[in-house]
């Protein structure tokens, strides 16, 4: 495929959703059906177009092109490499499913005329982050996505949502300013912020360290890294469920993605290793993993528990990134994939439960598995993947990460992974087991007979459309974990080689 | 062409003539008078554009008033920097007037509107002259005109609050002008010159021979322009004056008038003072620190306000300090940032005041806490307010980010990362006081309680123009920053 076509496709992927936003906004006036159709169509087109980039990527193609200059030596530019492609394809896939899921879920909610345009706009800006060819464009799209996503967070407009949204917004602004500071230091030190010129910072300097910390703050905030995670457990649960799935499943990853770019393209990773700056990241990642899991244990609201779980799962990605060897990076990238599937499945399943039964409290989930077997089955599957049971994809990422930790002669990290898996089991199993094997409290009282002779429960599932989104995501957790020959894993492996080989320029 | 050479003076004279005619015509034809003002402003803008093209093509040139060569006659300069400032002044005056023409009907008594037109044009003429003049005494004269007309467009409402604020402004402004005149006298004493070019030559020697005179004059200038441009801690007059004035006046005062004085200080620093003076005295350092405090305190005070226009006025104190910071950092890129911020803040703050004006026009609400849910009632006005706030915070895609980028880059270039932190911190503070307004306006569960009048189409279109400006300065900033970078290079 010619480079020109590739660039054109990339631009369409980013701009199409952004241009469609006002169209969708207007289409509400005509009919809700049209609005929904347009939203799904846009998401589908974005996904299909990003898939068409695959042949180009398979041949090892890389695109780096400046579009126009905003400030001297500071362009809006576009880049396509393995890493951008992987994330763009992944995010548009999950986005499509979440949009499909929204059709029924949001039909009951208010202000759909605001929800869909925002959903599609964030899709465009999210793709913009992945296709950005320099730090400045990345920053522009990152801010755009974060600020617009605020509207998703506060969709319910309850007092609680507004409070969480305000926290989110303030943290976003702080993160954005930190990024701005970091980028300006890099520009000052290296004279460029392009991602296409190889590592910009090769030498150790105080300013370099300050910039690194700024990036950690800016991107780490988005990725829910300790101690900047405070906004996440409030903001993710209050959003409508499909939006939570996207916030936790994809938008968190933009932070991790930014850090990958910083570690390999802005700094030379050898510099990070020799000056031990990656230890900062490692320490924070370990705290994030353990803290996220531990706090998740104490949550009683299903969506809050999932949100805390996201914090700890993103910690894995950061941990892999800080170890900086082939296996660890493969694990980190693959975990971006895995977590996107698992957590989106979980949030969508939780959403279906809330939509159908109105139950948010985990204590009320008893017997739910018999009432909504498919939803709860998918939930169980994704939760088991989270714990890391083979042959699900969570196992594969943890295994690879552990290999990486052993390669780096840091068995301590393996221990952290194991403890966290144990904690995962501790907070996910008490949701699943009662759901399938206990009776709801309402039936408990008048049921004294044989334990095996449970009264029949009427099956009440969510609509097929919602279910299909959940089922597809849950199947992905098996499909991408069954063998290490799957496409996601081989992409991660290639990406790791590519990143450690100096980014291929 | 002969006429083309006369452009600098024509740009000043056109609004002056308009100022004489407008109140006369107003007695017979109220509408026609408004169109006359629009026409004379439009002419000025067109001429300013031509002047810019001419200067870009033929290079800077000096215009001698009445063909009297300096040091006897008055001299005007048309170089890229001055013309940039001139264009900002006339274009934004035109745009604000679009808003004023409708808003004034509501805010002022019918009989004084004609006089308001005259004052408005006089103010524009004086500002245009200040940007171009190359002569200290001429500068003084137009500063006086500017001060008196600004005071008059504050007090024109004639209620108690306005009169008090106007009086405060008059006194402090007179003090500033007095300081300036004293400084001019001190310099004249030791050099015998008033023309900028001659003065700069003479001052090189005078600094060594009469250091006390020159140093005192420099200090007096900082106080004079600091007072007039509301540089912390000389800002005390600003919040009352800008908040109580009619909305178009507020937009004019916050958007342009204070910038003119900051620009004048910049011109005096680089065109009048020889480099040796700037190197031997910590003038830039003083301005820089005052600016840093201004940036912080302006934002902190703004957070404490409950009145919308007062909050905007305090925010101006913080924002004007960014411009002073560009001057104080004494570095090429920072200077570009400061000058670019003149344009950005002029557009943004004028738009915010217009939005506030439209809110007051339509609902009469001034308190921030009463504005919950107002975004659902008047979406366009509040979207404009949101875009303006985004630019104040420095969200990518708005002009605010570009000027902050240049300022921060300049500060880093000379190794003063502390000021980068100040810039970032103030952005955060801006976010903290602008965002809740926007959020509550759109998202609050309470419904807006007051009666709402329809906002006239003219006001709406003025706001739309403002939004377009803000986005253009944020995305297509390159031609303007290139111009400024070139223009500023001569000083370093």
Average predicted confidence as pLDDT of chain B: 88
User: What is the SS-derived class of chain A?
Assistant: mainly alpha
Instruction: Give helix and strand order of chain A, one letter per element, not per position.
Output: HHHEEHHHHHHHHHHHHHHHHHH
Q: Residue share in helices of chain B?
A: over 70%
Overall domain count of chain B: 2
Q: Looking across the biggest beta sheet of chain B, what order are the strands in?
A: 1-2
Query: Which shape of chain B, going by the Cα principal axes?
Result: globular
Low-confidence residue ranges of chain B: none
State Rg of chain A.
22 Å
Strand content of chain B: under 5%
Number of strands of chain B: 2
Helix content of chain A: over 70%
Number of helices of chain B: 21
Question: C-alpha Rg of chain B, in Å?
Answer: 22 Å
Most extensive interface between two protein chains, with residue counts: A-B, 31 and 33 residues
Number of helices of chain A: 21
* Main beta-sheet strand count, sense and barrel state of chain B: 2 strands, antiparallel
